[in-house]
Amino acid sequence: MATGQVQFQQIPGSGLVAPIFTAEVNSGGQYATDTRCIVIGHKNAAGSMQLNRAYRVSSMQQIDQLAGPASLLRELARVALRNAPALDLSIMATSDTGLTARAQTITIVSPAVGVGYFEIMGQRIQINVASGDTATTIASALASLINGYYDPISYAMIPYFATSSAGVVTLGCSHPGAIGNEIDIYVPPSPDNVFAAAGVFTVAQTTAGAGSPSGLAATLAALGDDPADLVVAPWSDSTSLGVYAAWSNDVSGRWAWTRQSYGHVFAAAAGNLSTLTTLGNALNDRHLTICGWPAAGANGNPTPSYLVAAATAASLYPWLTDVSYGNIARAHKGRPLIDIKPPRDVSVRTTDYNSQNKYGGVSTYDVAPDGTVLLSKIVTTYRTNPSGLSDATFRNVQTMFQISMGLKYMRARWYDLFGQKSLANDNPGSLGVVVTPADIKAGMVGVHAETCARGIFQDNATFAKLLQVRINPDNPARVDCFLPLETVNPLDILAANATIYLMYPNTLVSAVAA
Q1: Radius of gyration for the chain, computed over Cα atoms and rounded to the nearest angstrom
Q2: Tens of pLDDT along 21-38?
Q3: Residue 360 and residue 345: Cα distance in Å, rounded?
Q4: Could you tell me which residues are beta bridge partners of residue 471?
Q5: Which tens digit of pLDDT belongs to each residue from 129-187?
Q6: Handedness of CA 294, 298, 299, 304 (dihedral sign)
Q7: C-alpha to C-alpha distances, 449 to 241, 394, 400, 443, 460, nearest whole angstrom
């Protein structure tokens, strides 16, 4: 770029006569990331927040006040903050009108004296049963424990409002809709658990949760083009999936050239390999990640899939939004999820990950020997190109963030270099306000080199050779560019041929020595 002339923004270039020593102050340009994670869910009556409005939060006190204790939105936000304490988090409440909340009963029938305990969504409720305690007394105590439950370490609450009468605890789910059907009630079958004896503690569902949110489109639309790089919207029903696609699409959504505001949705689904791959095969959206969680086995799932989606998005946020230290392209396998408990049945924990990732477009998880849930591979649902042919370009979720974060960075830096300039084929006077296609190409190569140094894109030399910059033939105020961007890739596979010898052959040793 021509730099032969000092350029001013405010001080006139001519016409000043009176003596003066002056200076104008301008920015030299320093890129600052502006990213945000949005969690969408249902508030309850105790929450003070308005529907379809984003509230930036940083503490459970704020979240409890805004979303209401034990609400779906509260629990999603809690798990997100537990997995990324420095998360730039905003919460949004969407309407729960028309949804049916799940209802269940727990019936107590004269347990023996001792300790009785059970779990709701992995949280233990425990009571000492004394001589003379009746089923009515026990049920009343359990209802109080459920309503008052609060874990001072994880901040977890029980997603039920409980009442009791004549030995029966009636539970109303605080997570409305079909999503509440994933909530698990489990009695550990231990000899020291008086509730584990046959017929003492029985659970029945009186009303199934039903429905998905009808106001999700209005909630997402309320974001406009504000930062929303990672969005946790846990529903994966067909209506909600359609809303996500409309919100983020490349033609008129947030990924359109006219908006460039970007955004990626993390949703959730529970099921076996067949169910999850069927779901994934019905989709082809590079702006959507389905967090696939195993279907509950005989002993149930302590963690519902929608909390896995919140934990996944939050855990990856520091990496996927990093444009400084190369974390954006890292492989995710082995990254732990906090407050996520695996299915109790070991048999349902593992699946055909290759089929689920490659052919089903669904993300996968591992479980460590100590029960810690680990990320395996997080993918988008993109599988085929517009011609219906298999295409891996946008399969890795890292790629989508390299595109959005990389283009945001480049756009900001290009504006620093080329904003408020005039355009000419050449610049014989080396005027600072005039740029040429050659200047723009050189500047783009320099900015691309910066992204390479930050671990977003790679091979600046080839980029410089392939880059095309030319003035549009029909609009002399427009420059058209071809940007051949090669992403840095996650190291997902390390393949080794382990050939075993009882003794190295002399011919092999000789060949190596030579």
Answers
A1: 29
A2: 767 877 676 776 778 999
A3: 23
A4: 479
A5: 999 999 999 999 999 999 999 999 999 999 999 999 999 999 999 999 999 999 999 99
A6: positive
A7: 38, 23, 20, 10, 6
